[in-house]
Amino acid sequence: MPDDTAEAWPTPTVDVAELTRILDGRYAEVRDAVRKALPSYASVLEDAETMSRDQFQERVKEVVLELADTGATGMGFPEEYGGGGDLGASIAAFETLGYGDLSVLVKVGVQFGLFGGAILQLGTKVHHDTYLADLVTGRLMGCFAMTETGHGSNVQALGTVATYDQDAAEFVVTTTRPDACKDYIGNAARHARVAVVFAQLEVRGQGHGVHALVVPLRDEQGNLLPGIRIEDDGPKMGLNGVDNGRIWFDGVRVPREALLNRFADVTEDGTYVSEIESPGRRFFTMLGTLVQGRVSVGAASISAAKVALTIAVHYGLRRRQFEATSEETEELILDYGLHQRRLFPLLAHTYALHFAQEVLTDHLHDAFSGTVTDEESRRLLESRAAGTKALATWLATRTIQECREACGGAGYLSVNRFAALKADTDVFATFEGDNNVLLQLVAKGLLTDYASDFEDLDQLGMVKFVAGLAVETVLERTRAHKLLQGIRDALPGGGDSWDTDTGLLDPGYHLAMYRFREEHLLGGVARRLKRGVDAGMNPGEVFSRVQDHVIAAARAHVERLVLEAFVEKVAAMEDGDLKLALNLVCDLHALTGIEADRAWFMEHGRLTSQRAKAITREVGALCRRIRPVAAELVDAFAVPRPLLRAPALVGEGTGG
Amino acid sequence: MPDDTAEAWPTPTVDVAELTRILDGRYAEVRDAVRKALPSYASVLEDAETMSRDQFQERVKEVVLELADTGATGMGFPEEYGGGGDLGASIAAFETLGYGDLSVLVKVGVQFGLFGGAILQLGTKVHHDTYLADLVTGRLMGCFAMTETGHGSNVQALGTVATYDQDAAEFVVTTTRPDACKDYIGNAARHARVAVVFAQLEVRGQGHGVHALVVPLRDEQGNLLPGIRIEDDGPKMGLNGVDNGRIWFDGVRVPREALLNRFADVTEDGTYVSEIESPGRRFFTMLGTLVQGRVSVGAASISAAKVALTIAVHYGLRRRQFEATSEETEELILDYGLHQRRLFPLLAHTYALHFAQEVLTDHLHDAFSGTVTDEESRRLLESRAAGTKALATWLATRTIQECREACGGAGYLSVNRFAALKADTDVFATFEGDNNVLLQLVAKGLLTDYASDFEDLDQLGMVKFVAGLAVETVLERTRAHKLLQGIRDALPGGGDSWDTDTGLLDPGYHLAMYRFREEHLLGGVARRLKRGVDAGMNPGEVFSRVQDHVIAAARAHVERLVLEAFVEKVAAMEDGDLKLALNLVCDLHALTGIEADRAWFMEHGRLTSQRAKAITREVGALCRRIRPVAAELVDAFAVPRPLLRAPALVGEGTGG
Q1: Which domains does chain A have, with CATH numbers?
Q2: How much is the pTM?
Q3: Which residue ranges does the record assign to the Acyl-CoA dehydrogenase/oxidase N-terminal domain (chains A, B) (predicted)?
């Protein structure tokens, strides 16, 4: 068995604190503050197991209120209302809260991200003055009533209606169909006193599409107001500290000012006014302002994966089973090739998504602080947020599962955290948009060159639009051609034979492969859509048949963005051991990505079977190289020790 | 988009009752009896969510006792002790119990399979007379105390010791190290009055390896006996109706007759006697008699997957989202290509594993009813049980996860069953042997031609053994060469170019591909092991590096067995619509298996990139062909309606 290239290199020494500093980036201070605050609430992790749902939901509420007092949850609100005035910092704080109990995290997300975010982004000064100061402290709890039993992904088809009554200058909010009750609404079952309700707005008999209104649900004593019916959603797989519920509205009257009127308003005399003419455009502009929800879910998923990896890697460094290299001592399980193969690629992907998330957070911050204001950037941000959320949540699910199995039976005991991690994060793939639907939106943006608003997934329209263009035009418009230029630029000598002549550990090679795949998949989708329509098939049927290609193209796009973020981060680092170590991690991330899709690369002439096998060998070699620094790589996540629990798995002294 | 071959065929009509009859096979009566009994206990599914752990564990115990009264749980015991005298029937009954609450299932497994099985298989008449009648009724609850905190997979290294005290004619049982306490032991925390304890037997200062003894834990009032300490394992991810615990023994004395002495005994004067000379062989013969545990876990996993698929497929036939093929109506989500792609291959794999499990159950029955007695058959049975358990449990985890995501946010509510299905089945990949360890055992059996006992995984020995042979000899001994002969026999014209000239839907082609892969992977493992040892590497290090190939070879072997079982089942059916339908399912199973591993086939010259792409297209076409009969395919599992719960997802009237 000949030694592989990577193996000849020296093992880097990893300074954990320094690596943490790199991971923490510009929000190190905020992250540290949350890390310091969280251990006081470590007991919530146990409460989740021992308390009844009722008790636990009250306990989680208390913790959320205490966190609000520390300022950690209000970073994203304007300072004049008691916030921190820094949206990027609020995402970093939320990400770090992902190390703790996830019911607390989600309740924070509901109260400050969804409810607070809607008031801030969709409302105007009157709403800000009325609600923000109180909601930032948590004195006023609210909920975000968008999803209905019958409609989650397709928000434009909601069945709740708000009709303007001109005589009373009020809106009348009504649940019009059995499947139009608001469902899965966090904070609704117990604590919300008001709701931001998304409803079809009707003025003078004319529909204007979905708009948001503030509707009071309960009085100060917590009694339901007239016309409101609320039902608990009952026990859930996880997140049982969050009080999700269903809400029915029976002709509930709210004043005209209840309409969150930043983008559209109804005058007293019943005239609908908006600066945005197109109803679709208006709706998607509103939705677009809520993008921070998706950014937050992605961030929290990555944190949950980090917790799981920290436990599993340390367990692999304590647990021995079977004699292997010696007759006397059983082998550390992390010294088994298979165990490395199971954990290290997931560790590498988690690093990659961490840095991709950092870029995304920066873009979000720039867009919402007014640094960047053009519409194209906004759509790119929405696309990037959706795609990163999908990849991060799926990665978390996979990572937590593999880490749990890598801890054997012990991983099944609640005290070792995997039970809650698995159960609580499972819904992340679904909420803030089903991952597959989100990837379709990403693909639509790519295929139409962001010609329409992000959420406007009209499949028929998209298919017809693409079918109306020449494939070359699609590629031109999708900037996929720029990718190919990028391939040549990244490699020496114009890179004409980059797929055979470059070293397997050359980041230029990795980027070229990811870019080629994206470009080719997008072109393929365009071709298939055109061919189907040209053959006279129903456009919906065409879409259905091409759907898995659509998802694959979107995925390839987001994976390329993730890889670029990681490669650029490492390239910008000062030379030294840390750069060497992160280079290994980046190589492993990139190569396992190519390896996982090597069938596709072979099918498309970009990988010989010889080179494909060489990649698999190189992945094994990289794992062996990472093994000596695996503990440092997870310790740099700096998950506070009390949050790891799992004393039997990781020992008492481990962790940040 | 040209139409695919499969699409030109007519859609079969599926008679659900008739398909159920085929699935139920020879144990239809037993399965029906359990199906009739289960709905009375459907309320346990809700109790799991609403009761405290204490209450729920008592409730589950009650249900187990009531089920014992029906005779469903005692099928595998001799009739003279109140059993049914039919081991195959007992597996079928257990499999069907997998439709219900899984704490009940696992407690049944612990009491009757593990505890009862150990008494029956490892004990002799005195033990049978003392315990069987009472344990069959559940009057005597017991536990199976094998796993320790420090050792699960490597049972030979257990730290509990039983020393023979000749003067008293007693064994003294002691927990010798902190990590030698028995751990995760079902029934231990509350209900077991006795335990079958696995301990290192020491007689006259000499160790004889691990043996099993019956040790009383509690008196009739449930008080712990002297020298016994028991601790609750605490809340778990799932299965909280089972009282798992840790047990410490502090010099506990049991009479000489406590030793389960079917394979070895200690005479009164302290002489160790056994008909099996080799200690390793003796131990593995004992373990081998407990194979039904693994067969049972595999069976239950398949049932859990069936429940998940039934819910998800029916949800896909009710839920609509987004206009696609028509402007007026939203599309059924099961009509989306991606949704079919997500669910149907898993449905096909579940069918395949069902039939593979049927073959395995038959082999088990034959071995234990004395029809088949040779040692080789026994080892083949153990290998097959281990491999099927690994594949079935992983498939269940994957299927339940995908089905949950395919039901969106609704899938997250406990009322819709996925919460419990996920949490309860998660440990199946770990218990009765970690899946990866089991696959290593399978590989070892293949590589050594079952020369040694099944569980005897001495990696050093195995590596040295294989390294000592020529690769050809390994292939000769592993019967892999028979596979290649099988390839030629299965195809017309000697099948010299079967990988390019046969139709994609030809079962002969599928079998040839699966057989080629198995043969090639095994040869590759042998070559790599030899090369490493020849190069002077430490054999343990060699094993570690080849470990993922070892697992891949074992997996390929079991997948081949599974495919053969399915192909043979369908081939033996009478011509007609049902055969047509199952042929589609079998094709989808086989082709998605090849598709998933198409990179490997391309790397090894057995698939051109053109043909690989054609397979992907064919899979899409098969999914569209299966769509019209999808409801019937899941309805044939005949999961009793009350056990599905999920009224909002599947409607009130669905299910058997």
Answers
A1: 21-142 (1.10.540.10), 144-261 (2.40.110.10)
A2: 0.94
A3: 30-138
